[in-house]
UniProtKB/TrEMBL annotation:
<dbReference type="Pfam" id="PF09364">
    <property type="entry name" value="XFP_N"/>
</dbReference>
<dbReference type="InterPro" id="IPR019789">
    <property type="entry name" value="Xul5P/Fru6P_PKetolase_ThDP_BS"/>
</dbReference>
<dbReference type="GO" id="GO:0005975">
    <property type="term" value="P:carbohydrate metabolic process"/>
</dbReference>
<keyword id="KW-0786">Thiamine pyrophosphate</keyword>
<dbReference type="InterPro" id="IPR019790">
    <property type="entry name" value="Xul5P/Fru6P_PKetolase_CS"/>
</dbReference>
<feature type="domain" description="Xylulose 5-phosphate/Fructose 6-phosphate phosphoketolase N-terminal">
    <location>
        <begin position="6"/>
        <end position="365"/>
    </location>
</feature>
<keyword id="KW-0456">Lyase</keyword>
<dbReference type="Pfam" id="PF09363">
    <property type="entry name" value="XFP_C"/>
</dbReference>
<dbReference type="InterPro" id="IPR029061">
    <property type="entry name" value="THDP-binding"/>
</dbReference>
<feature type="domain" description="Xylulose 5-phosphate/Fructose 6-phosphate phosphoketolase C-terminal">
    <location>
        <begin position="582"/>
        <end position="783"/>
    </location>
</feature>
<dbReference type="InterPro" id="IPR005593">
    <property type="entry name" value="Xul5P/Fru6P_PKetolase"/>
</dbReference>
<dbReference type="InterPro" id="IPR018970">
    <property type="entry name" value="Xul5P/Fru6P_PKetolase_N"/>
</dbReference>
<dbReference type="InterPro" id="IPR018969">
    <property type="entry name" value="Xul5P/Fru6P_PKetolase_C"/>
</dbReference>
<dbReference type="GO" id="GO:0016832">
    <property type="term" value="F:aldehyde-lyase activity"/>
</dbReference>
<dbReference type="InterPro" id="IPR009014">
    <property type="entry name" value="Transketo_C/PFOR_II"/>
</dbReference>
<comment type="similarity">
    <text>Belongs to the XFP family.</text>
</comment>
<protein>
    <submittedName>
        <fullName>Putative phosphoketolase</fullName>
    </submittedName>
</protein>
Length: 785
């Protein structure tokens, strides 16, 4: 069925002209916003910044989705993959009225249009890409590749929502985007919304052709249909024909989406649909200048950013630019006051149906808090420190199981993990939940179902991208990954943190659930997998983010992990990084002490110290489960062999407490810091990650040079657990040697003990070569008085 309302299409074309006009104005103009007088050099911005090339296509799609929303009362949000089409999205949310409601100074008149223009890519204004200040956006366009994973995350458990995900042909070349096409294998039409991918091909990146832009329709159809999509092509450079074809195609795609959902919701899930996808081919920089200085512009890479340069100083360029602007006939689009004329304003949806005002694009407005069980119900009964071994993450798995159960009616929690849920000891969730897959399920599968909410796919990008989209549309979740491979998606963590940093400055952006990342299978216990699996770099990545959003927790045992997880799952607008291994480990604190420890962020462990009522000779500090083990074992050894050496043990669970309080809200005040670490005594610090991180966070503390940090130094191989810490200089015996060397008061007693420690390390090397396991006194060590 061909879309028949030609009168509406003609009005939509004029609306598109209005969006294009406002887009060009944002890039170029600071005065004379509606061309009430001939253009003069002083009307042009001194610096021309922005991206025109993708913008006409983005606006074309927006205008047509507005029509779809109006005619079907459809619930649609718009994610712009070509992020530097920012002026196009700003133009459209301004035309629909959302922008002026949120930013009242940008009024719907000539004065407001001038302010809209002047703020774009100027000091104190808005960036050139689709970003946090853009109403309707949940997608940061600064880094390409994430639009589809965010879109599917938004659609999960949102049965009435359609997410229009515009994929740029440059973005389509990225690995995260390429992997995200397979998200259809996890979208269940019975309980989820839908994603409508619109692959916008205009042929070029900044200066070269794109892969898919040069590919044939046949090859693109094979690519997308191979991923399960029903592919529809719309292409051309005749505006009215493209309007006709796009309207017809959108109606067809909408009907297919609703038919798949109706079938599944009436008869139950039976098969994976062939979800529609649109391939839109239009010229890059469409409706812009055909050529400048005899060089082709429209349809080429030269239209990517600013098609006409030197407008202020080159009269011919000024003439070309003015003709371009006037070709949109602003006098027909805006009335005498500069407001959009009524017949065009009527084309925008109303209220929350406007894509800029849709509550799903401001997820905090519809956020329902999780119903969390008491985390103490999963605590381990620790009668005496360092005497029992338990898999700490298994206790968290039990808690996650019950979170699924308690929130089953809300359908607002999912676990995302790259095929590692059981491996990371979180498998108790499968008592109540399944792995999600809408592919055929066979008899030998283990807890696989189309209605599962444990999302396993071997792509860190996809897992984290799904979770980010899920969170930003008002839900909750956890991303669990092997530690080393969280670096695959580290850039996503950076981009999400930047999003949060900006969103908390905007009162209209309501808080969303925090991005919670659990890193397990850590560097110190991937001794069997080898060097490739040994890398704690995400800690450094998150340390670089502002204290307003970044949090890093290193719980040493199960009870601390439970306390930290409870806090993180209740929090908003943070990126919470939790690092703990999955292997059996000694347990240190009972639940009451764990709660107190995690509340403080760090504490002195008196039971492991021997400095009662005196100033210690050395402080032995630790952050992380394996550093804690080695530090406590070192303190025990020193107590047995040189009780004259007074040792204070400080354990850090919240890494940010080490920062000066001026640099991070969790930072300890100086008096409290000195109370634990003293003012001038040496500190031997065993750290889970790279040693430089501790030097960074204690910079500015009293006598910071006294901190001697041992951590991961890129020394790894396939070996034993204890040999990993030996290789990196963080074993209990190396910590003992460091402490004895630093403690000047007892230096006369330490030489034979240092020699003994070195002898043990030598014996260790011989023993593991002969026996393929660690020394019994290391392997079986527990705390004894």
């Amino acid at each position: 069925m061909v879309y028949a309302d030609q009168g509406r299409l003609a009005l939509m074309h004029k609306y598109w002209n209005a969006a294009n006009y406002l887009t060009v104005g944002q890039i170029y103009l600071q005065h004379n916003p509606l061309l009430k007088e001939p253009l003069q050099p002083e009307h042009i911005k001194p610096r021309l910044l922005g991206h025109w090339g993708t913008s006409p296509g983005l606006s074309l799609i927006y205008v047509h989705l507005n029509r779809l929303i109006q005619e079907y009362d459809a619930n649609i949000i718009y994610l712009a993959g070509p992020g530097h089409g920012g002026p196009a999205l700003l133009a459209n949310v301004y035309l629909e009225g959302t922008y002026s409601e949120i930013y009242p100074k940008i009024t719907p008149d000539a004065v407001g249009i001038q302010r809209l223009f002047r703020q774009f890519s100027t000091p104190g204004g808005v960036p050139s890409h689709v970003s946090v200040p853009t109403p309707g956006s949940i997608h940061e366009g600064g880094e390409l590749g994430y639009v589809l994973s965010h879109a599917f995350g938004a659609a999960f458990d949102n049965p009435d929502l359609i997410v229009a995900a515009v994929v740029g042909d440059g973005e389509a070349e990225t690995a995260p985007l390429e992997g995200a096409w397979k998200s259809t294998q996890f979208l269940n039409p019975q309980r989820d919304g839908a994603v409508l991918p619109i692959l916008h091909l205009n042929g070029y990146k900044i200066s070269g052709p794109t892969v898919l832009g040069r590919s044939s329709d046949e090859s693109i159809e094979k690519l997308l249909s191979g991923h399960g999509y029903d592919v529809h092509f719309v292409e051309g450079d005749d505006p009215m024909q493209v309007h006709q074809d796009l309207a017809t195609t959108l109606d067809l795609c909408y009907a297919k989406i609703r038919s798949y959902q109706e079938e599944a919701r009436t008869h139950g899930f039976t098969r994976q649909p062939e979800w529609p996808a649109i391939v839109l081919r239009t010229p890059k920089g469409w409706t812009g200048p055909k050529e400048v200085d005899g060089i082709p512009i429209e349809g080429t890479f030269r239209s990517h950013q600013v098609p006409v340069a030197s407008v202020r100083s080159n009269p011919e360029h000024m003439r070309i630019f003015e003709n371009w602007l006037r070709s949109y006939h602003p006098e027909e689009l805006f009335d005498a006051e500069g407001s959009l004329v009524p017949e065009l304003a009527a084309l925008a949806p109303k209220g929350d149906r406007r894509m800029g005002a849709n509550p799903h694009a401001n997820g905090g407005t519809i956020l329902t808090e999780l119903d969390l069980p008491a985390f103490t119900d999963y605590a381990i009964d620790v009668q005496k420190p360092a005497t029992e071994l338990h898999e700490s993450t298994r206790q968290l798995g039990k808690m996650l199981r019950d979170i699924f159960t308690r929130n089953a009616a809300e359908h607002n929690f999912r676990l995302f993990c790259p095929d590692e849920t059981n491996s990371n000891r979180l498998g108790n969730v499968f008592e109540v939940e399944n792995r999600c897959s809408v592919e055929p399920v066979i008899s030998i599968d283990d807890h696989v179902s189309p209605d599962g909410r444990v999302m396993e796919v071997l792509s860190e990008h996809l897992c984290q991208g799904w979770l980010e989209g899920y969170l930003l549309t008002g839900r909750h979740g956890l991303f669990a990954s092997y530690e080393a491979f969280a670096m695959v998606s580290a850039s996503m963590s950076i981009q999400h943190a930047k999003w949060l940093e900006e969103s908390i400055k905007l009162p209209w952006r309501k808080p969303v659930a925090s991005l919670n990342i659990l890193l397990t299978s850590t560097c110190w216990r991937n001794d069997h997998n080898g060097f490739s699996h040994q890398g704690p770099g995400l800690i450094d990545t998150m340390l670089s983010k502002k204290g307003t959003v970044s949090r890093i927790y290193l719980p040493p045992d199960a009870n601390c992990l439970l306390s930290v997880a409870d806090h993180c799952l209740r929090s908003h607008d943070y990126v919470n990084l939790i690092v703990i291994d999955k292997q059996p480990q000694l347990q240190w604190l009972n639940k009451e002490d764990a709660i107190d420890h995690c509340t403080r962020g760090l504490s002195t462990w008196q039971w492991a110290s021997n400095d009662e009522f005196v100033e210690p000779d050395v402080v032995m500090a630790c952050a992380g489960d394996i550093p804690t083990l080695e530090t406590i074992a070192a303190a025990w050894w020193l107590r047995k062999h040189i009780p004259e050496l007074k040792v204070r043990v400080v354990n850090v669970v919240d890494l940010m407490t080490l920062y000066p309080s001026l640099l991070h809200p969790h930072g300890l005040d100086e008096a409290t810091f000195i109370n634990h670490f003293t003012h001038d005594k040496p500190v031997v610090f065993a750290f889970h990650g790279y040693p430089r991180a501790i030097h960074e966070v204690v910079h500015g503390r009293p006598n910071a040079e006294r901190f001697h940090v041992r951590g991961f130094n890129e020394e790894g191989t396939t070996t034993t657990p204890f040999d990993m810490v030996v290789l990196n200089g963080m074993s209990r015996y190396q910590l003992c040697i460091e402490a004895m060397r630093r403690a000047t008061r007892v230096r006369g007693l330490t030489a034979p003990l240092i020699a003994e420690c070195n002898d043990i390390l030598t014996r260790h090397k011989s023993y593991i070569q002969a026996n393929l396991e660690d020394l019994p006194e290391v392997r079986d060590w527990t705390w004894t008085n």
